[in-house]
Amino acid sequence: MAKLNCAMCHALDGKGGKSAKPLNGIAEGKTDEQLMSAMMNPKKAFGEKTMMPCFKSKITDEQVPAVMAYLKSLKKQECK
Q1: What is the count of structural domains for the chain?
Q2: In a designed cystine with 17, which of 6, 9, 72, 80 is the match (CB 3.0 to 4.6 A)?
Q3: pLDDT at 74
Q4: CA 17/CA 33 separation, integer angstroms
């Protein structure tokens, strides 16, 4: 994920960007189709004004399942 620069906008484990939702828990309640759409066609998923970049040319079809599995593994952080 570091290679994709997600931390520019998304926090991970409380560190990183603050302009988008944290990656921890981001996949909760979402289908594979919703996650893939968010990565590959964010303007369709979130609307024309989204700042989310399109990753269609940045990850291969073979990498998509691994990225989705990684996002699903990131559990929402509990407040302490």
Answers
A1: 1
A2: 9
A3: 94
A4: 25
